Amino acid sequence: MRIDLHTHSSASDGTDTPAELVTAAAAAGLDVVALTDHDSTRGHAEAIAALPAGLTLVTGAELSCRIDGVSMHMLAYLFDPSEPALLSERELVRDDRVPRARAMIAKLQELGVPVTWEQVARIAGEASVGRPHIASALVELGVVPTVSDAFTEDWLADGGRAYASKHESDPFEAVRLVKAAGGVTVFAHPAAVKRGRTVPEDVIARLAAAGLDGIEVDHTDHDAATRDRLRSLAADLGLLVTGSSDYHGSRKDVALGANTTDPEVYAEIVRRSTGAFPVPGTGGPVPA
């Protein structure tokens, strides 16, 4: 089985619609794909409706968190999307995205970059606006060559010249809320140092004691030595180890299935979940 447990659609900051994403996942030879848009489950219904036969969808979200001034992302799988407390927290994060984006655009304008809210809103479309949409605007304007190049201290990285904060969940509270909604939690790309400061390992240990289920080890932002270190940490803490692409369509140069999760780990994630179940595809044949 080929299992990719971290992808994004145009419901957040990916470029594929949810329907296009599941079609592409099937064409890429995946057996299981998780749709984990940022703080949103809005793309799930469309993905389920378009799910090809032979592909299973894991519903989820990537929750924006912060601890001790360090931003981190929590992957949440197979939770009840209507559970009131978790839904309310996701809405708080989403509602703060527009004022934050406007603040970052104002900072960029002060730095002499002719970016506008209208340009960023056009790029975001129906999605909740976020930093990748602003980064795409900088690419359009020729300020940086790629989206990744916008996430530096010169521009949009945490603490960067054009950075602005938004409401982000406490990760311990996020673990508690996801658990209460019947879901499973995995710390996304915990050692992605090129994105900025990372959470210390003692915090990961505290999160494990508080109920964190796993850490995403096999990720494009982790080199071989980092993966070995994280795998050892996971073994010491009794955490599951996942792998994924963190696919964003054409916004990032990472293919579906670039990293995958062991089928036994996937089975354990499903076993632990009570809020929702994986959805098997019953649609038409996989496109050639």
Order of helices and strands: EHEHEEHHHHHEHEHEHE
Q: Please compute the radius of gyration using only Cα atoms.
A: 18 Å
How much helicity do the residues have? 25-40%
- Indicate the overall shape: globular
- The rounded distance between the terminal residues' Cα atoms is 19 Å
Main beta sheet: strand number and arrangement? 8 strands, mixed
**Number of strand segments:** 8
The percentage of residues in β strands lies in 15-25%
Please state the average pLDDT score. 94
Concise summary:
With 288 residues, this protein is an alpha/beta fold. The chain contains ten helices and eight strands.
What do these coordinates show?
With 288 residues, the chain is of the alpha/beta class. It is 36% helix and 15% strand. The protein has helices at residues 18-27, 44-49, 84-95, 97-110, 117-124, 131-140, 171-180, 201-209, 224-237, 263-272; strands spanning 3-7, 32-35, 56-67, 70-77, 184-187, 214-218, 240-243, 279-280. Strands 1, 2, 3, 4, 5, 6, 7 and 8 form an 8-stranded mixed sheet that branches. Helix 5 (117-124) packs across helix 6. The radius of gyration is 18 Å and the shape is globular. The model is unreliable at 284-288 (pLDDT under 50).
Question: How do the strands and helices of this protein lay out in sequence?
Answer:
Elements lengths: L2 E5 L10 H10 L4 E4 L8 H6 L6 E12 L2 E8 L6 H12 L1 H14 L6 H8 L6 H10 L30 H10 L3 E4 L13 H9 L4 E5 L5 H14 L2 E4 L19 H10 L6 E2 L8
Parallel strand pairs: 1-2, 2-3, 5-6, 6-7
Antiparallel strand pairs: 3-4, 3-8, 4-5
Helix pairs in contact: 5-6
